[in-house]
Amino acid sequence: MRIAILPTGRMEWQALPGALGRLFPEHEFYSLPTQEEVESNEAIDFPVPSFTSCDVLRLAGKLCAADKLIERAVAEAIGDRRSQPADLVLIIDDLELDNIHQPAAVVGIIRQAAQRYLERIAADGVNTYRHTEALRERVSFHLAKPMIEAWLFADPAGPTNAGVSVSRIPRLKTPNDPECFCSDDPAFAADSGADCMAWHALPDDTLKQRKKKQDSRPIWLKCSSRRSLHPKAYLAWLCLDGAEKKCSTYSESKGGAYALERIAWDSLLAEIDHCCFVRSMVNDIASCLGVTPAFAGACAPETDLADKRRRNRLLRNV
Prior knowledge:
globular; single chain; alpha/beta; 41% helix; four-stranded parallel beta sheet
């Protein structure tokens, strides 16, 4: 079967098909937009933007990036863009720290986008049956909590594969459920960026220069109030290099993608009450492929496929 991955991050776009292909080796996984689309269209929206980078309650009832995700997913599920439609399309977004307390609200936004899509095509005189069935049977929505980098800390080789020196040992609070990520590293918590020589040396005389410098600000300095809860910031700090403009050698599209593609699923899903959102996604795929889930344990109720028969669902799992 063919499973399309529609992520909102470059790291996931590059690496998740390979990672999931190792878990389900007899099936094809590919990212959207496809490699062919990206190479043939420089103006393409790539990856499709996330809608969770702010408190999603602000998005209620409004057009947003979730609408683009739904449109692209339906197109792949009904075969508008390929002669052969996908058997399953997985929309995958980070929950993000702004929404860590409200995954149900995030699910609500993607449901609103699906409803708007169906209402819009109905208003255009399109028979909605095929689109409704595609959404309900072949499109799912899943979350990485709080973000995809958290997964790497569950893999003993994850940080090293992402570029962290073997001499730098991650310090995490225990018990360490990656989806409740919390670092316990006094040096990370106290870092002021004093060693970021290249970043400090960037000019800031003009508005353009100041914007460029702000954009290059080390990520752990941008999230000081919630620094300990930010896996991407901790990963970047563990790769600290003052000679780099962003003060880190960590790269989502290089080290991050390399580590994610090689993720140790058995470590990530070893604890039955950890990584519930990850397990929801893996079980959803297993159900579509007609195989028994490889990892027992709890699933996140917000994205669990177990309640697939509920009447008001708009997507396969929500």
